[in-house]
Specification:
three-stranded antiparallel beta sheet; 18% strand; 208 residues; single chain; 11 strands
């Protein structure tokens, strides 16, 4: 999580820069924080996108911004929980082949094959599935039958359950130091610039 938190020294510095317009400090700080977080979200999504094959829209989908307001002059950029929001493998450029499904997660790595996996569904509900063990459930198999029969001839209720295949979450990538650290450092720099610009705007507007 990238956070912008304000302490008493920060408030005092902004009030001092505003002079006789010190009562406008909340406007300066909340506006600056929120603009900074919007920029940080764009930068974080771009850095994740440079590393993995996810599309920009899918990456941004998992980022949330907690905006600052006059009651709580702080804000944060957060990626949804890594375990609960793993990304469907279909989003990592999965392609169906005769031997299974191929996919590519990291942009600087080659595609790899997941044997026996298949793509099913339609549109936004399309996913990659597989059966971890393709051997029929012996407990359901009628006595006297062979368990090595053709897979497509095995009754569906005797097949092993399907499992949807997923890849790493956006939060997982965002937590990587080569992504998180530059975004956090840049956010601090952008915040200071936003504060200066907002103060200049307020002073020009009130003093002409």
């Amino acid at each position: 999580m990238t956070a912008v938190q304000i302490n008493q020294a920060d408030m005092a510095a902004v009030k001092n820069m505003l002079g006789d317009l010190a009562d406008k400090y909340k406007s300066v700080m909340t506006t600056s924080i929120n603009k900074t977080l919007t920029t940080a979200k764009t930068q974080a999504a771009a850095r994740v996108g440079n590393k993995v094959t996810l599309k920009a829209a899918r990456i941004k989908q998992d980022f949330t911004i907690k905006k600052a307001n006059y009651s709580d002059i702080s804000g944060s950029l957060r990626a949804l929980d890594a375990q609960e929001n793993r990304v469907g493998l279909i989003q990592y450029g999965a392609k169906q082949t005769l031997k299974g499904v191929t996919t590519k997660i990291l942009r600087d790595k080659n595609r790899f094959l997941i044997p026996h996996a298949f793509i099913a569904g339609r549109g936004a509900k399309e996913h990659v599935f597989w059966r971890k063990n393709r051997t029929p459930d012996k407990n359901k198999w009628p006595s006297g039958k062979k368990v090595n029969a053709r897979w497509d001839s095995i009754p569906k209720d005797m097949r092993r359950p399907l499992s949807r295949r997923t890849g790493p979450s956006v939060a997982y990538w965002f937590s990587k130091p080569d992504i998180f650290d530059p975004v956090s450092i840049q956010a601090q720099h952008v915040y200071l610039i936003n504060v200066e610009n907002k103060i200049d705007e307020i002073i020009r507007r009130h003093r002409g």
